[in-house]
Amino acid sequence: MPGFTVSPQQIAQFQEQGYLIVRQIFREAEMNRLIAYAKGDESMLGESYVRNDGQGGETRLAVRNDLAEDSLYTAVVRSQRIAGTMAALLGDEVYHYHHKMTLKQPLTGGAWEWHQDYGYWYYNGCLYPDMGSCMLAVDKATQANGCLQVLSGSHKLGRIEHVKVGQQTGADPERVAAACSRHALVYCEMDPGDAVFFHSNLLHRSDQNTSELSRWSLICCYNTRHNDPIVTGGRHPNYSPLEIWPDERVTEMIERQAAL
């Protein structure tokens, strides 16, 4: 929603639960244009790759470390609504770590095992788990098409060792089982334009897409300035200042792309 500012109560909720859902952070008209842009983006589709879940399902991913100036993905990543909110939730200046489009196709979209993003990012030289992601629903996300699931408050467990689970790398199953008995399972069902912000240590997963509807999501990942990786030339960028765009500039770019 243009002009959205996260409240102290929402920040407290994020700190306690490890996630925050914001409804209609992008308007329906904006999302219609983003959906059309993404589904017509042949370059993104061409560079995407598949991750199998070991049970016959597959999810296609397209990961980018750069922010092309003429891209609608860049407008979302830089938007005050997303980046400004993430900075407030993490309590520091944030920079773009990477962004990715996840493409769960009807009937074939794969599952993801329980994992923490910091379970992977730790090995990129990030000393602290002071990182987070925002998943923006491009399509409607439901339990039937494999929406995000989280264990509320599980970010307080700290980093869990990640091991091979089938054909994926997931959090230690014994620890996950204990966490599931202590933390509430939440299905993050969302309409296009809704977003869920979540901490890098929050345990999360998703089921296969067994529906006839696609489930595409744009995930914007951020690191904090004080957490600049101790290695350079890693998988994702080191710190560089992120120019955050006001709503007016984001809206202008969306409208300009729609006119092309």
Automatic annotation (TrEMBL):
| Gene3D superfamilies membership | q2cbj1_9rhob like domain (2.60.120.620)
Q: Does the keyword Nucleus apply?
A: no
Q: Does the keyword rRNA processing apply?
A: no
A single GO molecular-function term is: 2-oxoglutarate-dependent dioxygenase activity
UniProt keywords, alphabetically: Dioxygenase, Oxidoreductase
Show the InterPro entries listed in the entry. Answer: Phytyl_CoA_dOase-like
Which domain of life does the protein's organism represent?
Answer: Bacteria
Which Pfam families does this entry report, sorted A to Z? PhyH (PF05721)
Question: What protein name applies here?
Answer: Phytanoyl-CoA dioxygenase family protein
